[in-house]
Design brief:
220 residues; mainly alpha; 10 helices; HTH-type_TetR-like_transc_reg; transcription regulation; transcription
Length: 220
Amino acid sequence: MAGTVGRPRKNSPRRRGSTAREEILDAAAELFTTQGFATTSTHQIADAVGIRQASLYYHFPSKTEIFLTLLQSTVDPSLELAGRLEASDAGPALKLWALVAVEARLLLSTRWNVGRLYQLPIAASDEFTDFHAQHRELKEIFRSMAAELTGRDDQRIELPFYLAQSATEMRSNDGVVPSPLSSESLPPTAVMLADAALTVLGGVPPEDRVARTLELLTVN
């Protein structure tokens, strides 16, 4: 008689996530950000989820693929918003403000501090060529939006991207979400960093910046 097809568990679920894939990513995010990539094994990840190691490979072909998926989660939403901003009638100040705020919001919305993954040596690997291209694209979008306010030759255009990324250094890595995603508000830290990005460029944060940004986030 054929065995049951599925994802055998060694015990009851122990991770957050509505699917096995989400549980694996949650466990991997904790292990990668607390002990590094090289010292984390797929066996450890599987054990943290409560599944057999063979079952993990049903969802991800390798540890590297898990790491890449986590990296992608830090850029995909911001690139999507950038596309919406370009198609919107928002002014230059609001576009840059929204992008900084949403990037910081993203980094503050996860259980584990996935922004730390950039600091691991594996993140620079040639295996992640496509991700590196997307990351450069996002950085260039930040520069271009800043340049609309200051001019391309102003060195300050580098700052908004790094201000948004600084949310990584302003949060803990204890498994508690600093600022859960909300359709009704933005994290105070994200608002502060976005305001700072405009201020350092000599701009003035638009009065309706939070409401307009939330509106852009909910557009289908």
